[in-house]
Amino acid sequence: MMCLPLTAWAGGTILIYGDSLSAAYGLNQDAGWAALLEARLKQKGMDYTVANASISGETSSGGAARIAQALKTHQPKVVIVALGANDGLRGLPLAQMRANLAKIVRASQNAKSRVLLVGMRLPPNYGETYTRPFAQVYVDLAREYKTALAPFLLEGMAERRALFQADNMHPTAEAQSLILDNIWKALAPLLQ
User: Is the pTM above the cut of 0.90?
Assistant: First the structure.
């Protein structure tokens, strides 16, 4: 890998805009993938700061309602949108989730931010008629709005029980570096 001088990296703020999976639920904040991202950026000499505006329990509707203020406050160069899991777990209408995520993506792009959309998948007990179109929402939005896509936040770990807290929903501290790796693959090209 070629090392670039600091001036070759654009710099700025990366806004993480998610739910409990990005808010380090049940962990010390410095153990979450957002903090690990900041450490990785520093290690690589990339002049970015990380603002984590994730809220436990957040739905796409809540995210859509507060995106304008978050963009104004943080003025990010990159927005990582990691919402929708709570919509799915509550069985909310997919058209509503899609419209809310689209609003967040459009607002971010209108603010001249690059967007990374982070996909989620639901447990199979929700039924294929809901889980398949749920996962497809992220793919379709990324294509429509020409954004980067990390296909699944929990890729490679969803079946590994030891990587989840006692609630079987929230990843452990040990899982956070795996989450960061899933994000990093799609994020790194946006930072250059």
Answer: yes
48-52 and 114-118: which strand pairing? unpaired
| Cβ neighbours, 10 Å, residue 26 | 17
Helices 94-110 and 128-145 cross at an angle (nearest 10°) of 20
| Assigned CATH topology for domain 6-191 | Rossmann fold (3.40.50)
Catalytic residue among 20, 22, 60, 113: 20
Which of 78, 81, 77, 80 has its CA nearest to residue 59? 81
Q: Where are the domains of the chain?
A: 6-191
Decide if 108 is catalytic: no
pLDDT digit string (tens) for 54-113?
Answer: 999 999 999 999 999 999 999 999 999 999 999 999 999 999 999 999 999 999 999 999
- 170 counts as catalytic: yes
Among residues 47, 56, 61, 170, the one annotated as catalytic is 170
Which structure tokens are listed for 174?
A: 């040990």
Is-catalytic flag, 167? yes
